[in-house]
Amino acid sequence: MSGHEDQDDLKPSNTPGYKPSAAKSAEEYAKLDANDESLARWKASLGITGDVPAGDTSGPKVTVLTLELDSPTLPPGKKLIFNLSDTAKLADTKKNPIVIKEGVEYNVRITFKVNHSIISGVRYIQLVKRAGIKVDKLEQMLGSYGPHPKGEAYAKNFDPEESPSGLVARSGSYNVRSRVVDDDGEVYAVSWITDWEWAFKLAKEW
């Protein structure tokens, strides 16, 4: 698969009839239609109140912090957490892939911080290839968010999946390309890298 085809696979799915609205800051949303009760409830769900201080909007809207693989079958104390700012460690997984036990239920968890503005229709997209051939694609909706009222990070748990099993599945490693993107097609960078890449292999045990 060519790099161009990879980019197509990493684009968010289109919703028929949906047209993204113009981006607004949290401050602009706070002032928008103040007497509309339904809009007020929606803004409150995003942590937007009537008093939103003007913040620095020069940096990235979103900082993607960690990616975690969790499973009830993991040995006690074992954690598979990527600090996405540690690009050297991510790159090292290409030589030393992380190990995932075959045939077990696991789920992905992502943490991120919204720095300013409102993000809408944000999705995590993951493309998995083995020996250069696409074998899987995951697209998970994260949702819409405003900056956290306390400046804290958001966490999103994805639906559980089952890892492949069998001798064929255990042969070779899998290369993964991940990105976080919104309905407008804006990609939220990790350490100024739009996509991050990592690798895993399947084994009989963790």
Write up this protein.
- This protein folds into two domains: 31 residues, no CATH class; 143 residues, Coagulation Factor XIII, subunit A, domain 1 (Coagulation Factor XIII, Chain A, domain 1).
- 16% of the residues lie in helices and 37% in strands.
- It has five helices and eleven strands, in the order H-H-H-E-E-H-E-E-E-E-E-E-H-E-E-E.
- The strands form two sheets. Strands 3, 5, 6, 9, 10 and 11 form a six-stranded mixed β-sheet that branches. Strands 1, 2, 4, 7 and 8 form a five-stranded antiparallel β-sheet that branches.
- Strand 9 and strand 10 form a beta hairpin.
Order of helices and strands: HHHEEHEEEEEEHEEE
Q: Residue share in helices? A: 10-25%
Low-confidence stretches: none
Distance between the termini: 30 Å
Number of domains: 2
Assign the CATH class of the largest domain. Answer: Mainly Beta
The radius of gyration computed from the alpha-carbon positions, rounded to a whole number of angstroms, is: 19 Å
Morphology: globular
Largest sheet: 6 strands, mixed
Short key terms for the protein model shown above:
206 residues, alpha+beta, Coagulation Factor XIII, Chain A, domain 1, 2 domains, 5 helices, 16% helix
Summarize the structure.
The protein has 206 residues and is of the alpha+beta class.
Task: Describe the secondary-structure layout.
Layout: H1 3-9, H2 26-31, H3 37-45, E1 62-70, E2 80-83, H4 87-92, E3 98-101, E4 105-114, E5 119-130, E6 133-145, E7 154-157, E8 161-162, H5 167-170, E9 173-181, E10 187-188, E11 196-203
Parallel strand pairs: 3-11
Antiparallel strand pairs: 1-2, 1-4, 4-7, 4-8, 5-6, 5-9, 9-10, 9-11
